[in-house]
């Protein structure tokens, strides 16, 4: 794509045109050069959105809750962008999270944008692209960005890295709740949501969570427990009020600024790491490296020596270029 075509796309994005947003999201997702150029240009328009992370086990009602939350934010006059992240493996069967959110309601509303993304099995589950797409939704002007993930592996932790407020969903009926929360996962929750509070066992989930919170180390913010019934919309307004309270806490305590700084640092490290990995791959393809690789395969040298040689060669090349 030529520079002028990208400029035109950026201009259409700034005019609020949805197709331009969708195009740029795809470019950023696929890490195309036009996407990176647009990101660089649009980054200064970011900073206005509030990011809410929603995570929890499959079937907890994340899609249903996201819908209810969207509806309530719309009622309050806020626009909402949703990024529904599926681990790649789940794309082989069944509907994606984003599809399920869309299926529940026919969104014919300029104030709502829903996008599904599959992670590519990168470390930590959430790819670099998710951060980029969040910036785009922010720059486009959405008031609220919801990032939704299935709680598998490291995903919960990653969504917390992106979000200002992280909601962790728990539900009755999944057996002993203490067993369903993996170590460390509770710590990422700013608000604990006990969804499906209309069914038996909700009370004991709340009790278990309360006990776990008492034992854990949560700092000055004690994560509130909010009971919801996503299917009927019960207590969703209260949930949004609780998110607002957490937002106010972040601002008044300085924790919000600290989180933003941590997030910026992590993003820079992640991007730089990805860029360096690309440089190292390139360096390994250089024909001059072939003899060294052959020696490695014959076990005449070890991988540490090769790594050091490649790393120092790459960094001196980067330095001489800079
Ligand atoms: P996800 O996999 O976490 O996105 O879960 P879904 O939103 O697809 O919900 C899974 C199932 O639980 C669906 O059949 C929903 O209708 C149902 N569900 C969601 N929220 C509630 C709730 O508050 N109460 C009850 N009884 N069912 C719910």
What are the salient characteristics of this protein?
seven-stranded parallel beta sheet, 53% helix, 7 strands, alpha/beta, binds guanosine-5'-diphosphate, 322 residues, 13 helices
Concise overview:
With 322 residues, the protein is α/β, with parallel strands linked by helices. It is 53% helix and 13% strand. Strand 6 (191-194), helix 9 and strand 7 (225-227) form a beta-alpha-beta unit.
Describe what this molecule looks like in 3D.
With 322 residues, the protein is an alpha/beta fold. The chain is 53% helix and 13% strand. The chain has helices spanning 3-14, 18-29, 33-42, 62-75, 97-104, 128-140, 155-162, 177-180, 202-215, 236-253, 255-285, 290-297, 303-321; strands at residues 50-56, 80-86, 112-118, 144-150, 165-170, 191-194, 225-227. Helix 9 (202-215) links the parallel strand 6 (191-194) and strand 7 (225-227). Helix 11 packs across helix 13 (303-321). The longest helix is centred in the C-terminal third of the chain and has 31 residues, at 255-285. The radius of gyration is 22 Å and the shape is globular. It starts with a helix and ends with a helix. Guanosine-5'-diphosphate is lined by residues 58-64, 97, 100, 195-196, 198-199, 229-231. The site of guanosine-5'-diphosphate has 16 residues, from helix 4 and helix 5.
